[in-house]
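Technical note accompanying the year-one report. For the benefit of new consortium partners, we illustrate the data format agreed upon in the data management plan: each record pairs a sequence with a C-alpha cell string. No post-processing was applied to the example shown here.
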Amino acid sequence: MSDKIIEVEHLSKSYVLKHQNAERYTALRDVISNKAKAMVSGKLGARAGKSEEFWALNDVSFDIERGDRVGIIGRNGAGKSTLLKILSRIVTPTKGRITIDGRVASLLEVGTGFHAELTGRENVFLNGSILGMSKAEIKSKFDEIVAFSEVERFLDTPVKRYSSGMYVRLAFAVAAHLEPEILIVDEVLAVGDAAFQKKCLGKMKDVAGEGRTVLFVSHNMGAISNLCTNAILLNKGKVEFNGSVDGALKVYHNMQTTKSNLTYSSVGESKEIFISEVCIKNAGDETADVFVHDEPIYVSVKFNANIVLDDVLLSMSVTDYEDRKIFSTERLISEVIRVDKKQGEALVKIPAEFLFPNEYKLNVGIHIPNLQVFDFLDSVCSFSVVDNGSEFSNYKGVDVGCVFAHCEWKLM
C-alpha cells in the first residue's frame, strides 16, 4: 500500500526580475537633479528599468514515500533551493499545490531558524518549540544535540558570535535530533569540515532508518550516492528525471557533457609522421568528457606516416589543471607503420577506479626516444572524472594523491 508523505502537483514559482538601465557614472547632485526634472516633465517612468518574469519552477510534479532518502540534484539555477523553500513553507508557490503529511525540519542556509541575539542553548529550545515539541521533549534530546554538535563550550554564547561552521553544527544537530517526520537539508553542509560532513551523512541515514524521510540537495555526487535511495534531477525549473540514483546521475553527467574539445583532427600535415586525430570515448564507443570513477576511459589516437622507421613510440600523458603530470604510457608503433605506412590507430584504455575525481588534460606525442620528436600535442583534449559513491567520498577535501593503485597486499 502506498504511503505518500509528500505530494507535489504541477508546482510552479515565478519571480519578477528588474533590470536597471545602464548609465554612465554621474555625481549624486546630477542624479537628484535628473530625477527632479523627470518628475516635472512626467517622464520618470520612462527612465525606470525593464522587468521580466522568471520561472524558477515550472510544472513540477512528484511523490515521495515515507522513509525515502531523496537526493535533489541539478546545475546552479535549476530550481533546487526554490523547491526546498516551498516544501519548508518559507516561500509560497505561484501555481500548483503540495501536500505534506508530517512535521518538517529544514536546514537551508547558515542561520536558518536561529535568532542571532539568543545563545545556542536558547536557540535549541526555540527551534524545538517551532517544531511543536514540548519543553520536556526538547530536554530529553538536549544532551544528544550538544554532544553531536561539539559546541558545548560555546553553548551559552549568542550565536551571532558563532563561526559559520559552528552555526551549521548546532543547526544540523537540532534539526536531526528533534524527531521531525521530514528532514530537509540543502548544500549548507558544505560549510562544515570533511569529518563533520561524514558525521551528518551518517546521522541522516539513521534518521531514514527510523522511518523518517530525508530530502538532500548537494553537488557532491558521492554523498548523494552514499545516502539516497532515489533522486530527482531538476533542469531549468523542470523535472528532468525522477527515479533511481544511478539513473539520475547518468542523465546528469550526460547533460554536462559537451562536444567541445573532445576530438582533435588534422589533415594534410607535411611531417614525416603526425597525429591525425585524438578522441575520448566511453565504453559505449561514444565521445564523452565526463566519466564516473568506476568506468574506463578510452582514448583513440590515429596517426599517419610518410616514412618507415624502427623504434617509433606513441606516448600519452595525463595532466591535471595545475599542469601536474599524473601518469604516462607509451607503445611501440613501428610494426603498424611497416604494415601500412600511411595510417594507423591506437586505442588506449585508462582503467576504472584509477584516476581520482578531478579535471584532466591529454598530451600525445610520437617520437624516437632521445633522438627525434615527430609530433607533439599539448593539452589536446580535456575530461573530468566524477565520484559516483566510492571510498573516494571519504576523502573529500583531503589530498590523497592523483591515482588509486590496486596493489597486491600480503598481511603477515
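Partners are asked to follow this layout when depositing records. The domain at 4-12+59-255 is CATH 3.40.50.300 (Rossmann fold).
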